Amino acid sequence: xxxxxxxxxxxxxxxxxxxxxxxxxxxxxxxxxxxxxxxxxxxxxxxxxxxxxxxxxxxxxxxxxxxxxxxxxxxxxxxxxxxxxxxxxxxxxxxxxxxxxxxxxxxxxxxxxxxxxxxxxxxxxxxxxxxxxxxxxxxxxxxxxxxxxxxxxxxxxxxxxxxxxxxxxxxxxxxxxxxxxxxxxxxxxxxxxxxxxxxxxxxxxxxxxxxxxxxxxxxxxxxxxxxxxxxxxxxxxxxxxxxx
Length: 244
Description:
Helix 3 (about 40-50) packs across helix 4 (about 55-75), helix 4 crosses helix 5 (about 80-95) and helix 5 packs across helix 6 (about 100-110). The protein is α/β, with parallel strands linked by helices. The protein folds into two domains: about 1-40 and about 115-244, 3-Layer(aba) Sandwich (Rossmann fold); about 40-115, Putative phosphatase, domain 2 (DNA polymerase, domain 1), CATH 1.10.150.240. The chain is globular and about 55 Å long. Helix 11 (about 200-210) links the parallel strand 4 and strand 5. The protein has helices at about 1-15, 20, 40-50, 55-75, 80-95, 100-110, 120-130, 145-150, 175-180, 180-185, 200-210, 235-244, and strands at about 30, 135-140, 165, 190-195, 210-215, 230-235. It is about 50% helix and about 10% strand. It has twelve helices and six strands.
């Protein structure tokens, strides 16, 4: 609770300044990792490992991973993404009566560090960097996983130091996680655009005070709680609209 109190104090002044700052141009973008890297490779790996029930297992794993991350954050605990992903996969497989060895689980979790970039990512990132906009990941993934994915996709020179939730030991949508953006960039929240993959993340970022683009790659319904994203769409063109 002390950490949350500290965050509230740290962001109170910027929150009061939101209306005043809305006219300021966005000078930096903070990205969820999956807006740039395609996580469907993880599901494909599960289907390859468990051909008959892989799709169902992948869905159950994803749901359990979200549930555990939010449970830990609510309880003030933190295991890190990789450890939590393994625990969620182990639970999901056991619940479905699927035998997965530790080695298979390890290989499947490792796929998070072997993701392909979405087709529109490289050109968009280069365009924004050329325009002088600073770029960094703000992600639940570990820093080494983010760095591995940027390097394998030839994007390593475009991003600043990854802002992994390992730094604050609280997963998004904790305000402790979102607060890394202003602290790292030295900018107000309204000078930072947050680029979300999940609708829940877009909502959490808006609650925190970011101007937010939701990249709805998978075409899922929008969250029904308010406020809505400032910009939304199926690809990174939504970020261009946010920057206008």
